[in-house]
């Protein structure tokens, strides 16, 4: 049976992360009051924080605002405001929470948020997101820059795709010069890219540490905590320092044989964003079963680095284009996502896969039913499919989700019918045939 | 003699079962059925007490109690809780050891479970966020037709030309039914159409797990002969249905409980298992 009903683990890195994010919100507040430094709204997926860093511009992520509202259980009010404005129930709740909050001046941290000097839509894979940024520009009277990033349709991006994005990045630089009042400095830009490459290297090493048993951190819930510094501070020396501290902390935990749970009984891979309004409740459902996420696709939305990609200071514009087109999970095609998950299950030695479908995000969630079939039927990997939402608390049914989670872990461990010794061995007592993971029958692109 | 109990606190009814193991044979010696009502905790207690009375034993003689169903966390006298998914699988295996797929239709849930040779769960799917394809859908149809749930099954079998129910919404099915009745369709044809609509929905859900024979149906809806026929027609196979199908969850829970009693006994504390484990 379970070791602990609640998840209590908090490392020093969580405090440092909190301090850095509070500081970021303070800077945003200052920007709102003084106009300095100017802020740029942008998307998490394949974010080009390096360019902003080169101009000392402040990133403003509407998605982070939305999730911060949700995790503090403040998302329903702005969602309802947006629905009163005419946004349909079926619209993405991230959009509704952000727009509703913007219109009413609601902010997650209590301070003010600046009007974006530029609404930079750097991800167009989701039509709803392009509309989101058009609305931000409309409501805030901000200039809009729509960066048209082609979806990754083939094995790897074509030269034309890269050139197409690079050309737009040069246009973007001109606009950033205008709003910052600074001349573009190639050396500063390279320095920012160099910092990113260092962070990506550290982050990738952290991602591979979860192969250890026990994993020193939860690669879903804890990885989400690390995503703030990854997207806000990646191109800055502060980011490098943060990830050095994080890597050291986790390496020390590995040396001590310590993980986030009292005892790691199950190792799972997570697909899909979390239910932010019930983040803690959801985490406790895993903790109850001694289940630790050893890898997750959601932690690669902003960038996919654990398989080798790094920003290259020698070709910084091309590096940004490659990051946007190829190296973030949302711009990749579905077969590549299958392959990513398959590698996680295989190389990180997971007992099963948990897919969390979120109603808001059709882009991320469409096709997850087939994904479930593929992993259970083709690969024989125990897979659980859950449904709720990333932002809207009205779609989270605690009893239903708990029931499915409990049944899934019961089936994995066959608890409490098996002995404690078998249970502690996790999959050993499962009685479930674990088919060796083989290459999918579908064509895998890389 | 060792005794164990399973209590399945469902959304509509609470089922309790007492299992006995004399060292040679595991036998079900009592069942009890009570309405759940608003007081979930009381319903669990009442069900357990009724089953003990039926078995002619005192509650203290029961070595281990496993609770299941949505109300399982409220069964405070029980030793542990398990999901109805695990319990239905185990219960169906007890009733029909050749079972490889379980289709369970209850008041709020419909689920399909793929099970291994020992009754362990291999995979499962359930309805999500929607009561279409559940007992509640049938209940609403019964309300519109002013018919009891027990009468619905035999009555629907009279339908020769089932109407096409296009909605899958448990609420909107009422207006669909009224509309057909207004058009002069026979009530039995409407009901037969309702059954087919649910059957198609359930089978499309079930096909997400490997639907392998033999298929055992459990849950309260298994008592509805019309619904069973519709499911068999859509699946193209005969379903195994026990007169005790309604108790499958409680039976599975009791089987798990019996394992616990026997484990405790092997560890040398069998008789005291119930006392030691209370309140876990």
Fold topology:
The complex is a heterodimer of chains A (446) and B (280).
Chain A: H1 12-34, E1 39-41, H2 49-54, E2 58-60, H3 62-71, H4 76-85, H5 93-104, E3 118-121, H6 127-140, E4 144-146, H7 159-180, H8 186-209, H9 221-232, H10 237-256, E5 266-271, H11 279-287, E6 291-296, H12 316-325, H13 334-347, E7 352-358, H14 362-365, H15 368-378, E8 383-388, H16 398-413, H17 420-424
Parallel strand pairs in A: 1-2, 1-3, 3-4, 5-6, 5-7, 7-8
Helix pairs in contact in A: 1-9, 1-10, 3-5, 4-5, 7-12, 8-10, 11-16
Chain B: E1 2-9, E2 13-21, E3 26-35, H1 40-55, E4 62-68, E5 80-81, H2 84-95, E6 101-105, E7 110-115, E8 121-126, H3 135-144, H4 149-156, H5 173-182, H6 187-206, E9 215-218, H7 225-235, H8 248-266, H9 273-277
Helix pairs in contact in B: 2-8, 3-5, 5-6, 6-7
Q: Provide the helix percentage of chain B.
A: 25-40%
If helices are DSSP runs of H or I spanning 4 or more residues, what is the number of helices of chain B? 9
Arithmetic mean of pLDDT of chain B:
87
Q: What is the makeup of the main sheet of chain A? A: 4 strands, parallel
Architecture per CATH nomenclature, i.e. the level-2 architecture of the largest domain in chain B: 2-Layer Sandwich
CATH superfamily membership of the largest domain in chain B, which one?
ATPase, nucleotide binding domain
**Going across the major beta sheet of chain B, what is the strand order?**
3-2-1-4-5
Number of domains of chain A: 1
The level of helicity of chain A is 40-55%
Q: What structural category do the secondary elements of chain A indicate?
A: alpha/beta
Major sheet description of chain B: 5 strands, mixed
Shape of chain A: globular
Instruction: Please tell me how large the radius of gyration of chain A is.
Output: 21 Å
Total of domains of chain B: 2
Number of helices of chain A: 17
- Terminal-residue CA separation of chain A: 40 Å
């Amino acid at each position: 049976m379970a070791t602990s009903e609640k998840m209590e683990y908090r490392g020093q890195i969580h405090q440092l992360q909190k301090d850095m994010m509070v500081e970021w919100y303070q800077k945003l507040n200052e920007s709102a009051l003084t106009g300095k430094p100017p802020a740029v709204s942008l998307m998490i997926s394949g974010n080009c924080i390096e360019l902003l860093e080169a101009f000392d511009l402040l990133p403003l992520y509407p998605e982070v605002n939305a999730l911060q509202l949700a995790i503090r259980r403040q998302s329903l009010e702005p969602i309802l405001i947006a629905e009163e404005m005419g946004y349909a129930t079926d619209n993405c709740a991230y959009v509704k929470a952000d727009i509703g909050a913007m219109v009413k001046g609601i902010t997650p941290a209590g301070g003010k948020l600046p009007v974006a000097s530029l609404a930079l839509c750097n991800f167009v894979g989701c039509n709803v997101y392009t509309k989101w940024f058009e609305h931000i520009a409309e409501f805030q009277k901000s200039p809009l820059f729509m960066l048209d990033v082609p979806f990754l349709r083939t094995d790897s991006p074509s030269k034309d795709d890269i050139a197409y994005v690079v050309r737009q990045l040069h246009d973007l630089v001109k606009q950033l010069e205008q709003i910052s009042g600074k001349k573009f400095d190639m050396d500063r830009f390279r320095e920012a890219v160099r910092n990113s490459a260092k962070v990506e290297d550290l982050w990738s090493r952290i991602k591979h540490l979860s192969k250890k048993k026990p994993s020193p951190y939860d690669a879903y819930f804890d990885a989400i905590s690390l995503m703030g510094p990854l997207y806000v501070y990646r191109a800055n020396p502060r980011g490098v320092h943060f990830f050095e501290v994080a890597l050291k902390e986790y390496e020390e935990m590995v040396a001590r044989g310590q993980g986030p749970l009292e005892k790691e009984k199950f190792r799972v891979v997570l697909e899909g964003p979390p239910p932010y309004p019930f983040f803690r409740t959801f985490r406790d459902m895993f903790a109850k079963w001694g289940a630790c996420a050893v890898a997750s696709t959601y932690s690669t939305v902003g960038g996919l680095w654990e398989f080798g990609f790094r920003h290259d200071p020698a070709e910084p514009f091309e590096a940004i284009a490659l990051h946007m087109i190829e190296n973030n999970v949302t711009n990749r095609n579905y077969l590549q996502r299958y392959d990513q998950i398959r590698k996680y299950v295989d190389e990180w030695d997971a007992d099963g896969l948990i897919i969390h479908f979120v109603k808001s995000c059709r882009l991320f969630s469409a096709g997850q039913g087939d994904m479930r079939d593929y992993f259970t039927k083709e690969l024989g990997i125990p897979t659980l499919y859950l449904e709720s939402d990333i932002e809207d608390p009205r779609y989270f049914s605690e009893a239903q989700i708990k029931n499915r989670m409990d049944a899934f872990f019961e089936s994995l461990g066959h608890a409490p019918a098996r002995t404690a010794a078998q249970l502690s061995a996790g999959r050993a007592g499962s009685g479930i045939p674990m088919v060796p993971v083989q290459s999918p029958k579908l064509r895998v692109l890389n | 003699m060792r005794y164990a109990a399973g209590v399945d606190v469902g959304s509509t009814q609470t089922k309790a079962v007492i299992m006995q193991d004399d060292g040679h044979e595991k036998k079900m010696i009592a069942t009890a059925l009570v309405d759940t009502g608003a007081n979930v905790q009381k319903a669990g207690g009442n069900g357990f007490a009724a089953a003990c009375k039926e078995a002619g034993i005192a509650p203290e003689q029961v070595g281990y109690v496993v609770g299941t169903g949505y109300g399982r966390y409220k069964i405070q006298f029980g030793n542990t809780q398990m999901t109805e998914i695990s319990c239905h699988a185990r219960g169906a295996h007890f009733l029909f050891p050749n079972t490889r797929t379980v289709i369970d239709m209850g008041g709020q849930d419909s689920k399909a479970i793929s099970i291994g040779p020992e009754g362990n769960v291999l995979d499962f799917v359930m309805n999500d966020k929607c009561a279409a394809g559940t007992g509640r859908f049938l209940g609403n149809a019964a309300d519109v037709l002013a018919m009891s749930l027990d009468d619905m099954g035999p009555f629907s079998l009279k339908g020769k030309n089932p109407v096409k129910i296009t909605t899958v919404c448990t609420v909107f099915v009422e207006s669909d039914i009224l509309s057909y009745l207004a058009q002069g369709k026979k009530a039995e044809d409407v009901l037969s159409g309702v059954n087919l609509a649910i059957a198609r929905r359930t089978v499309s859900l079930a096909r997400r797990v490997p639907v392998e024979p033999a298929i055992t149906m459990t849950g309260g809806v298994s008592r509805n002969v019309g619904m069973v026929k519709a499911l068999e027609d859509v699946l193209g196979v005969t379903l195994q249905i026990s007169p005790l199908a309604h108790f499958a969850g409680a039976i599975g829970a009791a089987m798990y409980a019996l394992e616990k009693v026997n484990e405790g006994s092997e560890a040398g504390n069998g008789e005291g298992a119930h006392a030691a484990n209370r309140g876990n």
